[in-house]
Amino acid sequence: MSLNGRYDVLFEPVAIGPVVAPNRFYQVPHCNGMGHMRPRSEAANRGMKAEGGWGVVCTQETEIHPTTDLAPYAEQRIWDDRDIPALRLMTDAVHEHNALAGIELVHNGFHAQNLLTRASGLAPMDIALHMPYPRQARAADKSDLKQLRKWHQAATLRSIRAGFDIVYVYAGHRLSLAHQFLLPQCNNRGDEYGGTLENRVRLTRELLEDTLELAEGKCAVAFRFAVDELNGPDGMQADEEGRAVVEMLAELPDLWDVNVSGWENDSATTRFVPQDGYQMDYIGFVKKITSKPVVGTGMLTSPDKMVSLVRGGVLDFIGAARPSIADPFLPNKISSGEIEKIRECIGCNICVSADNFGVPIRCTQNPTQGEEWRRGWHPEIIRRRESGTSTLVVGGGPSGLECGMQLARRGYQVTIAEAADEPGGRVRLESGLPGLNAWRRVADHRLDDIRQRANASIYMNSQMNADAVVELGIPNVFVATGSRWCRDGRGRNAALGLPISPEIRVYTPDDIFSGASPSSGDILVYDDDQGYLAGVLAEHLAHAGCSVTYATPAANVSAFTLYTLENERVYAQMSKCGINLLTSTQLVDARPGKVRLKSVYTDDLSERDFSGILLVTQRTRNARLYEELQKSRHKFAHLELVGDAAAPGLIADAIWSGHMAAQNFERNSLDIDREWYRREIISLAHEQSGK
To answer: Which of 254, 266, 528, 644 is the catalytic position?
Structure first.
């Protein structure tokens, strides 16, 4: 129950077939880049959610057979009995905190490239693979479908033996064979598995019936289904075939886990969609059709919104992936009445990018995400101080705020000196741009924490030089002075800069943030950073009345947003704003009346006349203070450079750097260097011993 009773409904136990969830908080299946390759990390990551109060915690999609090989991505596997011990680590970690453990079984159909196994891909029809590898999947014949059912049945039995309480049949995101069979765009079959919707549902029905029969009261069976592809008549729609599927299967599964498809819609960023229940317009009808419990998502972080959805008969469970990543202890904070301490998801999809890069999960708001086992980090508990010494953090941006907050949480006396009249650094500045308002939460969360601690003080308008730092007499100094954008064109494709005449007006993002933005004229935004910022600034200038041309040497606008699932929306938004988009285009040189651009492939030159150029290319570290302090190194017990001042990167990188510095403070440097983190190593000891 919650502290004041207002949120009691969220903490009611709910039956899911033969099992009972202790509350309504449900971490839906989501990837975390650990999976079968890092089982201890996987278990610790999911166990942390259970410790934080999530009543149901699911692992990620779990391959049932070598013909659905997602290598090099580290999803889960349940190919044979040898996978059971690793999965048991996860269920044990979740059960330790009295939560239910769920597993999402999947055959990925034409989404699986089978690069490791080299198996032939299976699909409803002959079709090109979903991913870039130039190969096709073949139409599964009826013998293949019989085999598929056997694989799924075997995986179900193994899941039960591994201790899972909920076993999924997965038909969503176009990432599963079951979902691909449902969609006429992927299924042109003429047999009983194609054509009418009833035929296209057949495989899903068979998988559900098989799983229910094998479950036999040992576990619940969930059905994850994407009711709408958000593609109009060119895809499944919630008010047409999506609803019909729910009606056909209404009482079959023990639980409905409903969302929208594809992944870029289900995990849309706050830059383009509102937060707190943006999927409800699509999934809200399901509860009216079935008597079985329903879980839904939509970046739900407001407890009041959660209560209204449950009491309004929309959802039985509050589903979450990203909010549970940003704050694994969200349920416990609601229960204890500490709502103001919730570390709210900002919807930036840095977590998603990690999966697309094939590395363990990370989070802008929660730097401990993915570090639970390998570094022993906990989102709410940090090692107490080693001594009674005092610390100074120079810089109140994301890295400085995180470093200062964590040092204060450890018990040190902390002074934060910020040169500006408002803290937050780049977070404060970037959150004022179109679509990025939610990013302000990064600073707000840390400032709220710092301001409530008697052992932490933050001072504005405090420009520090080396003499001032020495004069303070604080023996431990962390320099988090950030970075500034270059105005000479240095970037990915011009490491030494570009020939730009001093007579042409050049802007950097720092100029825009300081109010020096052009309000009219033809402006070239040159993006050789290839992140997200240049695209947002181009939109900002277009709104201000400028005629904007955006050019980048990359093949895509804001190329990094391919990994955060935003690229199509970014392109559409910039086009809507009337921005002229030039990809695969490099800036050669610039002088008044003549700016030269060339194709990165053909060297074909073009000349344009721009009244100004906004360069978003590379950053220079603001490390001068640190370098000056190095001259007086003997006066300090500890001196460290953190965040963008050490290595410019994403906001998530800056926060992680500040957190790492606070965690390692007063640790033995040899210990830190001896093992960067605990590795999950494949042991060859058995073979080497000759046994």
So the answer is: 266
Mean pLDDT by 10 residues, the chain (691 residues): 86 98 98 96 98 98 97 95 97 98 97 95 94 91 98 98 98 96 96 97 98 96 97 92 97 98 93 90 96 96 96 97 98 97 97 95 98 97 95 98 98 98 97 96 98 97 97 97 97 95 95 90 96 98 96 97 97 97 97 93 92 96 97 96 98 98 94 86 68 52
Tokens matching residue 125 = 């029809």
* Residues 6 or more apart in contact with residue 82 via CB below 8 angstroms: none
Phi, psi angles (nearest 5°) of residue 618:
-145, 160
Contact (Cβ atoms closer than 8 angstroms) between residue 416 and residue 460: no
Active site residue 532: no
3-state secondary structure of 46: helix
Sheet of 127-128, strand order: 122-123, 136-139, 127-128
Q: Which of 255, 333, 261, 262 has its CA nearest to residue 287?
A: 255
- pTM for this model (two decimals): 0.96
Is 208 in contact with 223 (CB distance < 8 Å)? yes
Distance CA 565, CA 556 (A): 13
CB 259 within 8 A of CB 166: no
598 touches 604 (CB < 8 A): yes
Find where tokens 């969360």 sit.
445
**Which residues are CB-neighbours of 97 under 8 A, at least 6 positions away?**
47, 50, 51
**209 CB neighbour count, 10 Å cutoff:** 14
456: enclosing H helix or E strand: strand 456-459
**Backbone dihedral region of 136: left (phi > 0), alpha (psi from -120 to 50 degrees) or beta?**
beta
Q: Which of 7, 26, 73, 170 is catalytic?
A: 170
Structure tokens at 394: 């120079």
Residue 170 among the catalytic residues: yes
**CB-based contact 657:354 (threshold 8 Å):** no
Residue 525 pairs with which residues in a beta bridge? 550, 614
DSSP letter string over 289-307?
Answer: H-SS-EEE-S----HHHHH
| Whether residue 173 lies in the annotated active site | yes
Query: How far apart (Å, rounded) are the C-alpha atoms in residues 2 and 9?
Result: 9
**For the chain, what's the residue count?**
691
Please compute, for residue 577, the number of CA atoms within 13 A of its CA located in the half-sphere on the CB side.
26
Instruction: For tokens 């029905």, name the residue.
Output: 205
Distances (CA, A) of 319 to 57, 286, 293, 462: 10, 15, 12, 44
Helices (H), 473-623: 509-513, 533-543, 567-576
Q: Is 44 exposed, middle or buried (0-12, 13-18, 19+ CB in 10 A)?
A: buried
- Cα–Cα separations (whole angstroms), residue 542 to 145, 271, 506, 573: 53, 17, 17, 11
DSSP one-letter code for 214:
H
84: Cβ–Cβ under 8 A, 6 or more apart, which residues? 78, 158, 161, 162
Q: Mind listing the pLDDT tens digit for each residue in 136-156?
A: 999 999 999 999 999 999 999
User: What are the φ and ψ backbone dihedral angles of 506, each rounded to 5 degrees?
Assistant: -115, 130
Cβ-based burial of 11 (10 A; exposed 0-12, middle 13-18, buried ≥19): middle
Active site residue 31: yes
The catalytically annotated residue of 107, 111, 173, 445 is 173
> What's the rounded Cα separation, in Å, for the pair 108 and 284?
27
Catalytic-labelled residue, pool 7, 26, 30, 31:
31
Tell me: the pLDDT tens digits for 263-282?
999 999 999 998 888 999 99
